[in-house]
């Protein structure tokens, strides 16, 4: 394996290990938490949608994600799947 390939592989492993979409951060979520605090914890969401004062945001992908539902920018409920 070339040095360049080894460096690229190491970087990918490091980035995967640094993901904010993990069980530790999921455990820090609480009902009533402000949306801005959730985004400081998890970063910018992958996707958001909403209507009538309700918003649903998702971080991650199909394998591992955290989904948070807000009412008036406060956490109403949340769920996660595939977290490590």
TrEMBL record:
Transmembrane segments: none annotated. Residues 1-16 form the signal peptide. Keywords: Membrane, Signal. GO terms for cellular component: outer membrane. Residues 21-46 form the Outer membrane protein assembly factor BamE domain. This is Beta-barrel assembly machine subunit BamE.
